Amino acid sequence: MVQDEINEIIQLQRCGYGYKKIAQITGLPVNGVKTYCRRHPLAQGKAADATVCKRCGKVVTQNPHRKQKLFCSDSCRMAWWNAHPGRVKRKAYYTFTCASCGRAFESYGNPNRKFCSRACYYQYRAKEAR
Ligand SMILES: [Zn+2]
Ligand SMILES: [Zn+2]
Prior knowledge:
Layout: H1 3-14, H2 19-26, H3 30-39, E1 51-52, E2 59-60, H4 74-83, E3 93-97, E4 104-108, H5 118-129
Antiparallel strand pairs: 1-2, 3-4
Helix pairs in contact: 1-2, 2-3
The structure holds zinc ion (2 copies).
C-alpha cells in the first residue's frame, strides 16, 4: 500500500466508514483494508491531531515526534511552494571572514561581502592607503 492509499483509508475511517465500504470506495482489496484498519484502529478523539494537506486537502498523518507536516506528499509540497513563491523563506545567509578584523560574520542575501561592518571597511581602506 502506498502512502496515498493509506491517507485515503484514514480519511474514510474518520468519516465513519467500515473497511468493506472503504475497500469499495478506494478499490483496494478488502483484506488489505481490513488488516490495515485492525493494525491502525482510529483512535477516538485524535482527529484534532490530523492536518489536511494544504494543497489537495487529504488527511496528513502526523508523526508525533516530528515537525508537523503540512502536506501529504513531497509532490504536493513542491507544487504548493511553486504556486506561492513569495512565501518561500530563502536561506540566503552567507558566512564570511572579515578581511579587516578576521571575525566570522553572516550576511543576508549578499554573497560578496568582505567586511563585517563599515568601520572595518574604512579601517581596511585606511591601512591599504598607507
Ligand atoms: Zn496533498
Ligand atoms: Zn570586521
